Amino acid sequence: MPESNEEILEERPARRREASEERRQRILEAARSCFGELGFAGATVGEIARRAGVSNGLLYQFFRNKEHLFEVVLGEIIRDWVRAMVPREADESAGAALEGMLRRSVDFCRAHPLLPALLRGERGLQLSRIQGASRDRVQPHRDLVASILRRGIEAGEFRADLDVASVADVICQLQSDYSGRAYRRDPAFPDSPEIIDAAVRFMLDAVRVG
Amino acid sequence: MPESNEEILEERPARRREASEERRQRILEAARSCFGELGFAGATVGEIARRAGVSNGLLYQFFRNKEHLFEVVLGEIIRDWVRAMVPREADESAGAALEGMLRRSVDFCRAHPLLPALLRGERGLQLSRIQGASRDRVQPHRDLVASILRRGIEAGEFRADLDVASVADVICQLQSDYSGRAYRRDPAFPDSPEIIDAAVRFMLDAVRVG
Amino acid sequence: MPESNEEILEERPARRREASEERRQRILEAARSCFGELGFAGATVGEIARRAGVSNGLLYQFFRNKEHLFEVVLGEIIRDWVRAMVPREADESAGAALEGMLRRSVDFCRAHPLLPALLRGERGLQLSRIQGASRDRVQPHRDLVASILRRGIEAGEFRADLDVASVADVICQLQSDYSGRAYRRDPAFPDSPEIIDAAVRFMLDAVRVG
Amino acid sequence: MPESNEEILEERPARRREASEERRQRILEAARSCFGELGFAGATVGEIARRAGVSNGLLYQFFRNKEHLFEVVLGEIIRDWVRAMVPREADESAGAALEGMLRRSVDFCRAHPLLPALLRGERGLQLSRIQGASRDRVQPHRDLVASILRRGIEAGEFRADLDVASVADVICQLQSDYSGRAYRRDPAFPDSPEIIDAAVRFMLDAVRVG
DNA sequence: TATGAATGAGGGTTCATTCAT
DNA sequence: AATGAATGAACCCTCATTCAT
Fold first, then answer.
1. How far apart are CA B205 and CA A207, in angstroms?
2. Contact C202/D120, CB-based, under 8 Å?
3. Where in chain A is CATH 1.10.357.10?
4. Which nucleotides in chain E have some atom under 7 angstroms from a protein Cβ?
5. Domain at A65-210, CATH from 1.10.357.10, 3.30.505.50, 1.10.3110.10, 1.20.1070.10
6. pLDDT 10s digits, D189-200
7. Is pLDDT at A13 greater than 70 in this prediction?
8. CB-based contact, D210 to chain C, within 8 Å
9. Smallest CA–CA separation between C152 and chain D, in Å?
10. Of A75, A205, B17, C78, which residue has the fewest beta carbons closer than 10 angstroms?
11. Does at least one atom of strand F sit less than 7 Å from the CB of B19?
12. CB contact at 8 A, B133 and B71
């Protein structure tokens, strides 16, 4: 018996914790798919539990209630979304950085179709805390865009008279708009490459010097 | 006696019809406020009836069901929204026409805060017919924007190399974005005059010649 | 002007009464068809009024409520049914009288498919008064059958040891059973000529002397 | 310790399952009494739950909806009814077999007063599947009666010229008629011993040789 | 820790009945 | 006498949440 008593005593809780964490993750994954397909109201706790392969009651050990579960799912996805957008080293010019962000944002949302639910601010539930969580992530991202704008201005690449904060808002808005279209799958709001290209050019033409 | 017999005979039904129509309007008004505040799922038939000062059952004399009521509310508001945006004669230049549209759209939505619910494509209900109704209005509006763009290009006011259709899509998107903010009342997504001004400049800088 | 004042004064009410009676009949006719197709619970006051070509409210001028209307419809049809069954002069023998009654009952019900709803004692409503009305008609009919049985016994045509009252009950039961089948249209309970012939023979074999 | 590990591990669920099964039975019992007294339309889910001493929602864990509950109740009762009627060994003669069936049917229905609701084909609900289920039981019973008739004919006990299939139909009809009277409790349609005796004699006289 | 049976408030909808016109 | 708009109680059913096991 190579293991000491202590290790044995600790091992089981460790296993337990692992198993528990895995179940938590399974629930979150099921919640992502349900909320993404059906929205908050359409998704039922029962269906989430079923897809996670656990009982109804177990959800309430990890999450206060359905809304809390939604908040957590949303918080995680915004975190990942913002992470995915940060400029790469290869984005040397400020314009390339903006373009890269928009394109990576669109790509990310094509792969994670839940995010737009937040971005479009789905209603019908207490959004206060959700908005809070969202704001915590959204504002830093806008600040990042603003810093790129400032870099572009300093480099003489962007117009010197931009209202940096407001323009950052507009750019972030466009990013979420065209990212969200992957989710809507509504032919009236296409996310074809042509449209994305046009949005990129629109954005750059608006900020670049004549 | 200036009234003919016919008019007298029809008078009573006319009174009734008036009263009935007024109640229909009260229901629509209540529905607008409920759907606007609470979304489709959050709004209850009972609350709508309560705010309209009528009984639950009366709603079903005018509207097939809750969803039909929603469709009618939406259809009316999109109709009015599109109407409100059409360029005025005073908008002589193409740029002035675009700016006027965006500003009028924002103003309209400040006064009619339900519209953005459609624009953001609220989920969780049978949207097929709603999307259809929406598309019927949205595409013509995009075409209108496209025609303004073409006028600006011909006048040498806008860049000659614009992808007219796609740029019209982007502009309409921005219009609905900043119009929608009046509805959200989310400080993270402000609709302050500064932001609107910035959005207008952003749009014009993107399409005007250097 | 050949008409006296009195006649004029009376004529209009007379016309009115006629028109009123005609509407009452239209309502009854509509009620027969609705109750027959849909049963008591399935039939709605609105549909009956629609088929009669009158307003909802008018029904309540002629009938206390939906149940009262049902009672009247039922009472009329039982009256007609019992009338239709009375033996014809041509039914010389007692056996021929019984056979004629059963066959005429079946024929009547094929033409008036509501009756069986009563005969089967549809539930779910206050049947007390309805049963009363039914009993008022049903018992006389049983008595009529009993008198035919007695005539057959006296004539040596039927068994002398029949319990006349009880056998009359059984025969009336069979009459309503096979009459009712026209209404059910359930292939499991056919009302084919063969079945009716068999029922007739069964009945006659049961009462005739060896 | 006579119990194996497996048994111990299963014991707790077993308790639960027992309790659950008992509640299911209480619901079925309550449904029987409600449907029997009030019919399908008259019985409400709320009243059934109240009589069963459970919540409204629990019914929907066991049964898809009200109609499904009705189907199950009906299926069980028909199954038991057909079982109760099968001839006993003591019924040596064919006539005794027929008499026994009718009397046992009546006795069964006195104890299970819902059955006749099916037999009378209550309307106003989707009867397709119910009729199917019923037919599945009813026709075999008719076949059983037909085989008894054939046995009686072969034994010289019954008339040789009977139309076996049709006569079986008539006999089954009489069985359900007089069985159903226990349910109606309508003095106009008595199920007194005298009436039952008369029905038995009627049936036997109709099939026995002169 | 994990289950899932059980709860019950609340949803949308129907429809017999009334009453102002 | 006749209308039909209006009522509102009652229906069936869903589902987030709890708790005995």
1. 7
2. no
3. 65-210
4. 1-21
5. 1.10.357.10
6. 899 999 999 999
7. no
8. yes
9. 16
10. B17
11. yes
12. yes
